[in-house]
Amino acid sequence: MSSGTAGSALVFFGACIAAHDWSGLRALLADDAAVELVHTGERFDADAFVALNRDYPGDWVFHVDEVVDGGARAVVRARTVVGDETFHVATFGSLDPQGLLTRLVEVWTEAVAPHPQRGPA
Length: 121
Known about the structure:
The chain is 25% helix and 45% strand. By secondary structure, the protein is an alpha+beta fold. A hairpin with a 3-residue loop joins strand 3 and strand 4 (73-82). The relative contact order is 0.23.
């Protein structure tokens, strides 16, 4: 699958996750893809990463907010809403010459209230 740039691959990545298109997501990942979740220290191969997303509990909705494309590397800023909770993620991706994602690094956080002395942004 040649998607051109890492940014366009991450747009497709986000669309697959939002649509719960697990075969599309798997097709985008190189067979030797490595995924790291910085906040937990977990590491996944391509199949385990697809399973993590597919099997995540609850009725969640994924939204892409922004993609910054750097050619062979890019980042997507997104959020997942589960009921009343919102989780934010920055996913950094690297693209191989065949147009597949080979390395993903995800940094997740929960939405929190603004600091009382600074107020909302």
